[in-house]
């Protein structure tokens, strides 16, 4: 935590630095530190706001609704004056979540990353009106007040270090809106959703508090037993894709639990609190593989994510902040099983949310699929339609209802215009009777409905589509080219058949 000691000069938070992008059309908070009681005035393109620093040496002003444009200079004046150069005003989005959000355009930045055509993308990345602020990966036990990071202008020299998803979204959005676009990237690999929640929220939620209690017990043990063995400490969280310890391995010393991105609150404290309440238009979220607690954890996940969205919206204070997220891609791993994807889809019940489906652009072995271009297009389409008012399709077919008609089941969808099977007959449809035993089925498109049958099931009651970790070749799309998300019509225990894959208990 910072203290008021040494705040002799006016100093803005790191987000307010050269090449920044500020949000247009809404009140824009600007904050920093100075001497207690010092008057601070912030001016940008003729718009000014003043305040007096509090006893803690902190100040914040709000610039009234700014119009898109620039570049401008922003001055922050007190006993000294700070000039922030090359500031643009446009559209700002927060990118958060796991390593697939961190995933960079170039593999030179991260060996496990790199887009399919990274050389071509980098060579063409001459977009001076696109900027990205990448916050340094930071985990903390207490909320922090600032984060290390800098704004970088998009160019062939810098784009390789950009988040690929953030870059593609910003590039396509800027092309469409013709205004500057900024991405504030606050993401961390293998992080859980609860790591991005504030302590008061977790502590006050009976369903989430046990996670915090276990974390605090582990922190206490670590501090009381320097150099102690992990096996002697309270148990840490177990993810769905955790690797079992090797037989005969030496007992490991306990690591600082605060530096474990699976623990609640640690990434909120280190990476979200410092950027609150930077004015943003919305959030792009890419997380899901890291869920702790096995079957119980998957069942808790929808509540965790709903809590996160509601809490972030309250903390940003911008109403129902758009929250657009990525459903897990196909992958031959328990972390990407259909029950997790179904849990992710439940977030759609909240207003101003949308889900980009990636079931068709995964990789059987890579948790970091390189085919990010379609994902950028899908996220951009969501934003254009739901945030910027474009009359356009943004979603693939979404299952709505079913009817049993003799030995067949008829399925109805939303976003159903132009239902199509790409590259041949429909695949990955299964059907079951009352015995709950699913078999492969024949599925045919009839107008805006799909008819599912199997000679093995004379009295069907349920259908599932793409219900597998890696449903290779699943091919239901609509006329706009968007894929359908995996779905099921039943409410049977979806976790039981795949419970053996879970390493957590």
Automatic annotation (TrEMBL):
Task: Tell me the first and last residues of the signal peptide.
Answer: none
Enumerate the Gene3D superfamilies for this protein: Immunoglobulins, SGNH hydrolase
Q: Please give the Gene Ontology molecular function terms for this protein.
A: sialate O-acetylesterase activity
Q: Does the keyword Zinc apply?
A: no
Q: Do you know which Pfam families this protein is assigned to?
A: SASA
Key words of the record:
Hydrolase
BP-aspect Gene Ontology terms = carbohydrate metabolic process
Question: Does this entry carry the keyword Hydrolase?
Answer: yes
Matches recorded under InterPro entries = Ig-like_fold, SASA, SGNH_hydro_sf, SIAE
- Residue ranges occupied by any Sialate O-acetylesterase domain in the UniProt entry: 279-368
- Protein name, UniProt field: 9-O-acetylesterase
């Amino acid at each position: 935590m910072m203290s008021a000691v040494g705040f002799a000069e006016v100093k803005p938070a790191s987000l307010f630095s050269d090449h920044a992008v500020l949000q247009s059309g809404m009140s824009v908070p600007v904050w920093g530190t100075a001497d207690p009681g010092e008057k601070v005035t912030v001016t940008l393109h003729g718009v000014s706001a003043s305040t007096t620093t509090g006893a803690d040496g902190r100040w914040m002003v709000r610039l009234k609704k700014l119009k898109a444009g620039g570049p401008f200079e922003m001055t922050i004046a007190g006993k000294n004056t700070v000039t922030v150069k090359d500031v643009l005003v446009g559209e700002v989005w927060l990118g958060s979540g796991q390593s697939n959000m961190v995933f960079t355009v170039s593999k030179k930045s991260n060996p496990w990353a790199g887009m399919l055509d990274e050389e071509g993308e980098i060579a063409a990345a001459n977009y001076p009106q696109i900027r990205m602020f990448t916050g340094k990966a930071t985990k903390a036990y207490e909320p922090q007040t600032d984060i290390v990071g800098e704004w970088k202008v998009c160019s062939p020299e810098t784009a390789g270090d950009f988040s690929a998803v953030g870059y593609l979204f910003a590039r396509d959005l800027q092309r469409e809106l013709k205004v500057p676009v900024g991405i504030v990237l606050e993401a961390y690999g293998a992080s859980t959703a609860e790591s991005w929640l504030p302590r008061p929220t977790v502590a006050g939620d009976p369903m989430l508090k046990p996670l915090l209690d276990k974390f605090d017990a582990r922190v206490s043990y670590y501090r009381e037993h320097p150099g102690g063995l992990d096996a002697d400490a309270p148990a840490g969280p177990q993810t769905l894709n955790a690797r079992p310890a090797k037989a005969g391995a030496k007992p490991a010393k306990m690591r600082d639990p605060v530096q474990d991105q699976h623990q609640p609150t640690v990434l909120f404290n280190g990476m979200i609190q410092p950027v609150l309440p930077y004015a943003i238009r919305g959030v792009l979220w890419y997380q899901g593989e890291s869920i702790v607690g096995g079957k119980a954890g998957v069942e808790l996940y929808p509540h965790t994510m709903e809590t996160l969205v509601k809490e972030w919206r309250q903390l940003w204070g911008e109403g129902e902040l758009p929250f657009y997220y990525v459903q897990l891609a196909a992958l031959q791993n328990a972390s990407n099983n259909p029950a997790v994807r179904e849990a992710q889809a439940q977030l759609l019940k909240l207003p101003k949310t949308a889900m980009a489906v990636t079931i068709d652009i995964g990789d059987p072995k890579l948790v970091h699929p390189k085919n990010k271009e379609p994902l950028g297009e899908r996220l951009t389409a969501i934003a254009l339609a739901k945030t910027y008012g474009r009359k356009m399709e943004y979603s693939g077919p979404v299952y709505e209802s079913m009817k049993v008609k003799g030995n067949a089941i008829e399925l109805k969808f939303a976003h159903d215009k132009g239902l199509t099977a790409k590259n041949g007959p429909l695949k990955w449809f299964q059907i079951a009777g009352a015995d709950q035993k699913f078999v492969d089925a024949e599925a045919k498109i009839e107008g805006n409905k799909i008819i599912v049958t199997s000679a093995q099931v004379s009295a069907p009651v349920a259908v599932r589509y793409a219900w597998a970790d890696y449903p290779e070749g699943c091919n239901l799309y609509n006329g706009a080219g968007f894929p359908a998300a995996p779905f099921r019509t039943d409410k049977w225990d979806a976790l039981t058949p795949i419970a053996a894959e879970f390493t957590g208990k």
